[in-house]
Design brief:
By secondary structure, this protein is α/β, with parallel strands linked by helices. It contains 15 helices and 13 strands. It is about 35% helix and about 15% strand. The longest helix has 15 residues.
């Protein structure tokens, strides 16, 4: 619709839109979509949004699909931004605390956002077979959207992936292979077999469109806060596409004149037993080395090497944010605490943000009176083995 080109986030090599792309052929890093935002802003206005559908496709002028008939959707996005006043009362300082509940998306996680964009573009570009490595929720989303689009889905997951994710994929028609290893091992299999099998690889940030769906979380936050961004965003980080996407959305909105240059402090939350981003942040590195022996019950955080590592770290540093770890015991305990004070049954990944917030308050990183957002990236119902 308004795509001008794709560009490598690392070396700035330019690529033509309307064609299938994976990583940059020059340096092997992710490609990002660029838009004619002046053109987009002619029809995408704050007033026009008042009468649009309650899904992420309300922002269609800054999404990549050219022909709207190619959109593959379950009505994802426009998730509730819920007050968490009773939870805030348990904290040592007074905050305006909110939870953005992505568990209310189709397939019960924020992964639906990325897959609606990726599968819609795959349909537009004639793809018939898709493949993905996944720690759980991305697989469930791919299986559902591929089924809706009439495509084959080939999914590779660690054998200890939550059972609900495995069953979900099987029951929506995907070809599921379980691997004794981590998501990185699953990714290697997809990379080795995709050409021979005719699969298009929709791994996190190895194609340019999942991040476009994820960025709509940033648009929604701005709209739900009447175009004033919060002070702090805590985001549970595995592959980190949501954080990268929101940072991209903030830039696009500023260029369209919707918001000013002020940004939230972006906080990456990881498990201490799989914390490549935190380690790289603390060491002042721009790229994060693979985290050895990664293991956490929060399967979405069990990503020992994120291909978008430098984009996550750039956003954290540009926002004067930080990266922090919590223990598995802390994040599991937090699920119940959030549940009894808010009624939200969070995924362990989202719950990790609560002990992280307490540590940030102790460090005087989060201060009295600030507006703080916790992102719950999925539903706890997918993780029953954890409890």
């Amino acid at each position: 619709m308004n795509v001008t080109h794709l560009e490598c986030a690392n070396c700035a090599e330019s690529y033509t839109g309307g064609e299938l792309h994976n990583l940059c052929t020059e340096c092997g890093k992710p490609l990002l979509v660029h838009y004619d935002l002046e053109k987009a802003a002619r029809t995408l206005t704050k007033d026009s949004l008042k009468t649009r559908e309650s899904s992420l496709w309300r922002y269609r002028e800054v999404l990549p699909v050219e022909d709207l008939d190619n959109i593959v959707s379950f009505g994802e996005g426009w998730t509730p931004l819920l007050t968490a006043d009773r939870l805030a009362e348990t904290l040592p300082v007074k905050l305006n605390l909110f939870i953005k509940d992505e568990g209310q998306n189709p397939t019960q996680s924020f992964k639906a956002r990325g897959m609606t964009a990726a599968i819609s573009m795959a349909k537009e570009l004639g793809v018939k077979k898709l493949a993905v490595p996944s720690a759980g929720n991305a697989a469930g989303a791919l299986a559902a959207y591929a089924a809706r689009a009439g495509m084959e889905a080939h999914i590779f997951m660690p054998s200890d992936t939550p059972r609900a994710n495995i069953v979900e994929c099987e029951q929506t028609g995907a070809f599921v292979t379980l691997i004794d290893g981590l998501i990185t091992d699953c990714g290697k299999i997809v990379a080795e077999r995709k050409d021979a099998e005719g699969w298009f690889d929709v791994s996190t940030l190895k194609e340019p469109y999942r991040v476009e769906g994820k960025k709509t979380m940033g648009y929604e936050l701005a709209e739900q806060f009447d175009w004033t961004l919060p002070d702090v965003i805590l985001y549970p980080t595995g592959g980190g596409t949501g954080l990268i996407g929101m940072w991209k959305a903030f830039d696009e909105m500023e260029r369209m004149g919707w918001i000013d240059s002020r940004r939230p402090k972006m906080v990456s939350v990881q498990s201490e037993s799989c914390a490549p981003i935190v380690r790289a942040f603390q060491q002042g590195e721009r790229f994060a080395a693979e985290f050895e022996n990664a293991a956490t019950v929060a399967s979405g955080l069990r990503v020992p090497k994120a291909i978008g590592d430098f984009l996550i770290l750039d956003a954290i540093r540009s926002s004067n944010g930080t990266a922090i770890t919590v223990t598995d015991e802390e994040l599991v305990t937090a699920v119940k605490e959030i549940g009894r004070t808010t009624g939200i049954f969070t995924a362990p990944e989202g719950a990790a943000c609560l002990p992280a917030l307490r540590k940030l308050i102790e460090q005087n990183f989060v201060n009295e009176g600030e507006t703080v957002i916790i992102f719950n990236t999925g539903s706890g119902i997918k993780y029953l083995e954890t409890f």
